[in-house]
Amino acid sequence: MWLNTLTNGVKAAIEEIAFEAEARVRLQAMGLGIGQEVSIVRQSHGKGPMMLRSGSSYLMVRHQDANRIRVRKLP
User: Theoretical Cys-Cys bridge with 28: which of 17, 33, 49, 52, CB 3.0 to 4.6 Å?
Assistant: First the structure.
């Protein structure tokens, strides 16, 4: 499943980041790496940005970018 399909509060682990190497490195520097636990804190209506929590950090990710981050739900 893709990150943009999660609902608020659901925890997931990142399995794949389908970006070019440079963008992937940038996302990893912000705390979004393979195996990292994330959850959606808040979403804009429609296709607006999403606020994520990753560890102790909060990030904003564009909806179209979240569509390129594959995750699996955690219990």
Answer: 33
Whether 16 and 68 have beta carbons less than 8 Å apart is answered as no
Residue 61: domain span: 3-73
What does the pLDDT look like over 50-64, one tens digit per residue? 999 998 999 999 999
Count Cα atoms within 13 angstroms, Cβ side, for 39. 9
Q: Which helix (H) or strand (E) holds 23?
A: helix 21-29
Distance CA 42, CA 60 (A): 9
| DSSP conformation letters of 9-39 | T-EEEEEEE-S-HHHHHHHHHTT--TT-EEE
Residue 38: which CATH number? 2.30.30.90
Residues forming a β-bridge with 66: none
